[in-house]
């Protein structure tokens, strides 16, 4: 018989050992805990963690974070644990992420506000040993160059991120806050987790890590404007960021992409990524028309 309870800092060894067995589908959980520990609060990376235990062995974890996202690594009781963490946190639910079968099971139990639904998709999960990274020829030859983004790039990158949020994450245009995007990108600049690609001095693509640990990174936020697509820019931007991560000591990278996004899959596979499973997310618009009023 399983029991549920909130996790505390004393549970960190069991938490780390459990998630290490599910490394590829636990990057958000692991990276957030790396930054803020198992501590709840309103600050970035903080959240309430609930665990399921069987005979004192941790079998499932769910967290409800500062940003409203519930994130699961709950292979045995996803629906029950999602309900438990939402009840304990009292936060509004703005997203549900995790291995796709777990997300599907939890969605049915949570009674989400379907009027706020944004992106609801399963995605393919990809993994790469960075020792096997294939650097595209345009990057290795110097025809294009990558670099970490700077604050002075943000006037260009904010509209790109707006388009990414609207078309890739499924947010309605009226819910997207450019000031919030700028703040988020500025934090990424400060953290060194946002990159751009240049050709002939012009910025043509961007990429980021949406979760990062000293030994492992998770790629996200890859965007190339429509007029510059099908030129390998996104692939080169990702490769450049991973080259830098490898130089800093990371040995592994993961990412997930929509099952029908065949160009992205082809690009990632050309870098050496291999499909290893499924991840998924249900993202809700963070602001409603009622909130605006």
Helix content: 25-40%
Residue fraction in strands: 25-35%
Q: Radius of gyration, rounded?
A: 19 Å
* CATH homolog superfamily of the largest domain: Gcn5-related N-acetyltransferase (GNAT)
Tell me, rounded to a whole number, the average pLDDT.
Answer: 93
What ranges have pLDDT less than 50 throughout 5 or more consecutive residues? 288-293
Shape: globular
Order of strands across the main sheet: 1-2-3-4-5-12-6-11-10-9-8-7
- By helix and strand content, what is the structural category? alpha+beta
Total count of helical runs of at least 4 residues? 10
Walk me through the structure.
The chain is an alpha+beta fold and 293 residues long. It has 2 domains: 2-112, Gcn5-related N-acetyltransferase (GNAT) (Aminopeptidase, 3-Layer(aba) Sandwich); 128-283, Gcn5-related N-acetyltransferase (GNAT) (Aminopeptidase), CATH 3.40.630. Helix content is 35%, strand content 32%. It contains 10 helices and 12 strands. The chain has helices at 12-20, 27-36, 78-89, 100-110, 137-140, 154-167, 178-191, 233-247, 262-270, 289-292, and strands spanning 2-6, 47-54, 57-65, 69-73, 95-99, 117-129, 145-148, 194-199, 202-213, 216-223, 252-258, 274-284. A 12-stranded mixed beta sheet has the order 1-2-3-4-5-12-6-11-10-9-8-7, with helices on both faces. A hairpin with a 2-residue loop joins β2 and β3. The protein is globular. The termini are far apart. Mean pLDDT is 93; it is low at 288-293.
């Amino acid at each position: 018989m399983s029991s549920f309870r909130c996790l505390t800092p004393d549970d960190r060894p069991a938490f780390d050992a459990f998630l290490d067995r599910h490394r590829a589908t636990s990057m958000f959980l692991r990276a957030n805990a790396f930054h803020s520990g198992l501590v709840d609060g309103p600050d970035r990376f903080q959240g309430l963690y609930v665990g399921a235990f069987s005979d004192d062995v941790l079998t499932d974890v769910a967290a409800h974070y500062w940003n409203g996202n519930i994130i699961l690594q709950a292979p045995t009781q996803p629906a029950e644990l999602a309900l438990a963490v939402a009840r304990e946190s009292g936060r509004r639910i703005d997203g549900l992420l995790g291995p796709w079968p777990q997300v599907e099971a939890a969605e049915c139990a949570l009674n989400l506000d379907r009027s706020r639904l944004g992106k609801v998709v399963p995605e393919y999960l990809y993994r790469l040993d960075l020792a096997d990274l294939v650097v595209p020829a345009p990057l290795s030859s110097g025809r294009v160059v990558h670099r970490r983004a700077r604050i002075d790039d943000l006037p260009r990158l904010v509209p790109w991120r707006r388009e990414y949020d609207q078309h890739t994450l499924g947010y309605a245009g009226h819910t997207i806050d450019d000031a919030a995007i700028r703040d988020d990108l500025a934090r990424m600049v400060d953290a060194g987790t946002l990159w751009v690609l240049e050709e002939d001095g012009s910025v043509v693509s961007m990429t980021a890590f949406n979760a990062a640990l000293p030994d492992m990174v998770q790629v996200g936020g890859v965007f190339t404007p429509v007029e510059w697509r099908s030129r390998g820019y996104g692939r080169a931007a990702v490769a450049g960021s991973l080259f830098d991560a490898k130089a800093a000591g990371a040995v592994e990278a993961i990412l997930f992409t929509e099952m029908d996004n065949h160009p992205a899959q082809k690009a990632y596979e050309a870098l050496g990524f291999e499909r290893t499973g499924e991840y998924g997310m249900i993202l809700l618009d963070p602001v409603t028309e009622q909130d605006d009023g």
